[in-house]
Amino acid sequence: MHRLFRKALDNASGQSKSIIAVIIDIRDFSGFSQRCDSVDVAAFIRKVYMKIIDDYFTSVSFYKSTGDGLLLTIPWEEENLEETSQKVIASCIACHSQFAEICSGDPAINFEVPNKIGIGVARGSACRLVSGKRTIDYSGRLLNLTARLTDLARPSGIVIDGAFVIDLLTEEQQKIFEEDKVYLKGIHEEEPIKIYYTPEFTIISKYNKQPIVSKRWREQTDVKLFKDLLKLGQFFFYYLDSEPLSPDDVVVNIKHDKIINGEARPEYYRTYDFSGFNYKLDRGRPRVAVDFPKLCEKLEQEGVKEDMEITITVAYVEK
User: Fold this and answer.
1) pTM score of the predicted model
2) What are the residue ranges spanned by the domains of the chain?
């Protein structure tokens, strides 16, 4: 397939295309990849991809793997926008609600598999890379926005860009979603954007509720090898340069290479907020104590290798 892709690039050109972009991310896929044999992981992901495409998103024009999920694009025209929007959201709702049972009854899947997904949805124009009649890729701001929205949908759920126009959906579909405003790193850091999300399943991070600007947010970053974290075996103290606005305005973020099928993939990364910490004033000095044993336990569950770098970022809203 990679040779076909390379050959197609010789005559490729970019076109602007109106699409609805959907990214579906399988939660806890990294941990699953470590727990199960790579053959079982491959069997699960193959069947999941097939069912998502064949049973839920039959009208997609293009799809590709994102490592532990799928990017799907659905074209729309002005005359079919409302119908297409309702079908896409109906597919998202059905896929999300039924994902836990997506492999139920399949005799080949006789092991525990992930049961949650996060879905991001946005509508607009994207750059379509075409070669002849074949679409070989999509790129652009819309795809970046959709990826950020997918990351918001934790621990699971659906997050839709506010510019999608919620009125296009049926009344029943609209009832599932709640409106909010968020800041997104690299996209909307100083001015919030409107989103619609599933409050029954999704908790919007405090980090995304504050402007991501240097005047408000301060960050202190530490990079350690996983094997060095394992040696410490205790709480590790980070003394902050200034005092946070409040204890609720402190976030500890973890970032490392993503583990896929038991192997580290540097071209992807895994990032998440870590709850194992506490904040206090230590003789007048603001201090964040991170529970390294708890962090190491989580990293081991995800299959992180001892020689991998772990980036620990303490972010806080400055008083």
Assistant:
1) 0.69
2) 10-208, 217-317
